[in-house]
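Issue 218. Parser rejects a valid record. Input:
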Amino acid sequence: MMSDELNIVERSFGFAVRVVRLCRFLDEQDRVSRTLANQLLRSGTSIGANIEEAQAGQSKADFVAKMSISRKEARETLYWLRLLKAADIVAADKLTDITKEADELVCILTSIVKTSQTRSARGTSDEL
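Output the parser choked on:
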């Protein structure tokens, strides 16, 4: 596994830990906060889970598919974070770092997917 892949594995796991902590806080709030916490928990922890699955992909296409799912989950997570901020459920300053990390994960995953698709199209078997 090359450094980019290792980096995204570690970063997505660390991000999932942060999401779990935020959801624990939200779980102690009202019903709306708990409902949003469930959505955030599912998407935020799914990013890393799909990246882990991609590492054991059966083919390059399988790898790209799992990484694409991870990217979609990261984008969904950004949505829930924006909603928590816009609805004044969590103070904006408390969400700045986690939102920035989610955005960076989207960018990294987009790059990985595009690079993998380009290499597949060229017929190369180079790893990331």
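Fixed in the parser; the record now loads. Helices lie at 3-27, 31-55, 60-86, 92-122.
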